[in-house]
Amino acid sequence: MTRRVLFASRLAAAAFSAVWIAASPAAAQQCGGDFRQFLADLKQEAISRGLSAQAADRTLSGARVDQTVLARDRAQGIFKMPFLEFSKRVISGYRMKNGAANMQKYAAIFQRTEQEYGVPAPVITAFWALETDFGAVQGDFNTVNALATLAHDCRRPELFRPQLIAAIEMVQRGDLDPQRTTGAWAGEIGMVQMLPEDIIKFGRDGDGDGHVRLKESAADAILSAGAFIQHLGWRRGEPWLQEVTAPQNLNWAETGLGNAKTGAQWAALGVQPRWGQISSNLPASLILPQGRKGPAFLAYPNFNVYLEWNQSFVYTTTAAYFATRLAGAPVYNEGNPEPGLSDAQMKQLQTKLANMGYDVGKIDGILGSGTRAAVRDAQQRLGMPADAWPTPALLNRL
Q: Do the beta carbons of residue 150 and residue 167 sit within 8 Å?
């Protein structure tokens, strides 16, 4: 699995692109139009930013529009599978076994990474596994073509144009081969799927060869991931996710990422850890991926880093839970969640909620943060347990 979905989700949070974008302090660049002229103008911007004409030519001379990239961009979607189904599918015995083996194999670089950036090995290892199966599946799209295609396209040029400039800088440094470097359709590169700008800023030489090569070097990938995760806000020495049990008389309206209490306050309400100890002084949100009858977790401040990495709630909860498993936590208690909605039913629910005045975003069948918040409020209004899990019963009541 590559970072296609996570990058798509981060892009979705940005404003819709305008046709004109700032290309330099003194000029403006139009997206679209003749592709070769577009590349010529981009070369001049790269030179104005201090990069060499030779590096720009090496990078851009063979670039072409990739129609498959455009098709992927327009067809992208965030996971619609519920948490239990998705987590069971991606947290396999193979990934658990190989995760443990890689943490042992690269123990020295993991130790260095935690010392320098505060990010523990299980957190990086879980991303490494979910993104590329420890480097086995890194994507086969030519990186320069993917970035040039999306920068030239007029949907989000302000997001992709800087990545193409950064790719030129990577070529100048000797860390990207324009003809041979491949990755995900949206331009992410390497074992942990980082974008060129992030590689420029947070790429680290973990193996001491003078280069940052995230496709081939596990040491570079691990150290770079640690630097990037720290940049996203990771808090050293703190937990990220903890499975708990919750009493059935809890006020479910107080759950969800928008609500936080200290660990001690949750404990006073009867929330108990399934393993370890609740961090009494840290703020935490009680999250219920499939409602009050399914698994329950306390999400601590470090969980917000997962949401910075990928805004899909199912993906982030799975990645965070996977990291706890690699750190020694037991398999979750599945519980007995109420049946959810089909794709058609979810769209019907979103339509009803939108007609009631709720902001659920696009009617897409995805249980995103807006839909969850609307579901919780609607449940409260109807006197139903407000656990934000949409069910056929709720749909019928509406």
A: no
